[in-house]
Amino acid sequence: MKWLLVLLLTTVSVLFLFKGIELWSVINHVDGDGISVSFLGMDINDHVLNESISGYAIGFTVASLIPFLVAANIALRAKIKKNIDPKNV
């Protein structure tokens, strides 16, 4: 069950990172009306101006770190507990 949670958190982290990278790449290709930002089919904002896209890109990029760190914490704790021998403690 722990590894399923690690896989789910890692997947969410990768999705956040890809969205951040996508927003970083479209900053120079936006017309004057702005763009719509959506994530996993949900609209975040319908009208984001060119000046505000970098804020959303930073937000998605930083948000990708949180589930990754939680997944790494769960995985490392499981590995550390497995390596501890109760007879020697």
Evaluate the radius of gyration: 19 Å
Strand portion: 5-15%
How many alpha or pi helices?
Answer: 2
Derived structural class: alpha+beta
Q: What is the β-strand count?
A: 2
Shape: elongated
Arithmetic mean pLDDT: 86
Strand order of the largest sheet: 1-2
Low-confidence stretches: none
Largest sheet: 2 strands, antiparallel
Q: How far apart, in Å, are the first and last alpha carbons?
A: 27 Å
Order of SSEs: HEEH
Instruction: List the domain count as a whole number.
Output: 1
Polypeptide structure, described:
There is one protein chain. This protein has one domain. A two-stranded antiparallel ribbon has the order 1-2. The mean pLDDT is 86. Helix 1 (2-26) packs antiparallel against helix 2. It is an alpha+beta fold. 63% of the residues lie in helices and 13% in strands. The two termini are 27 Å apart.
What topology does this entry show?
Elements: H1 2-26, E1 35-39, E2 42-48, H2 53-83
Antiparallel strand pairs: 1-2
Helix pairs in contact: 1-2
From the structure above, extract its key features.
single chain; 89 residues; alpha+beta; two-stranded antiparallel ribbon; 2 helices; 63% helix; 13% strand; elongated
Structure described in brief:
The longest helix has 31 residues.
